[in-house]
Design a protein that fits this description.
Structural class: mainly alpha
Largest sheet: none
Keywords: Membrane, Transmembrane, Transmembrane helix
Oligomer: single chain
Number of domains: 1
Order of helices and strands: HHHHHH
Amino acid sequence: MINRSLNISAGIIGGFYILVDIVFRLTAWILMHSKKISYPFAFRLADNRGVFFIVVLFLSFILSLISLVALVSNLILFVRADFFLRVLFTMSGVFLPFIPGETTFSLFFEVFFIGLYVLYLYKIKHRKRDISESEFENYKQL
């Protein structure tokens, strides 16, 4: 049960991290195109008070920490269903803050992370639905 909550919380924090990153980049993009200012100055102006930086730094730390604990938990519980999905999801959560945000690869990695999270939630939802109550009790004992 704690393993599932760690994975879900890593997904929620990762989604929030991606959302804050997108808002920051959109703010800088709007400043660049509306005021016709340079790229570095727009990014400096978008984070004038350092609020985005502090939030992103805090979320990066929390996301990496929770994802690392979830990864260890997933490796310990390797006999449970969807082992490779859980490990791939939590490893992408660990490395998500360390991908530079200015590249196209970071956008693909963020989409990959969200896709794995949605797939993980889909698997959880349908796994409980497909298993009868007695089989679910046997599954929980593993």
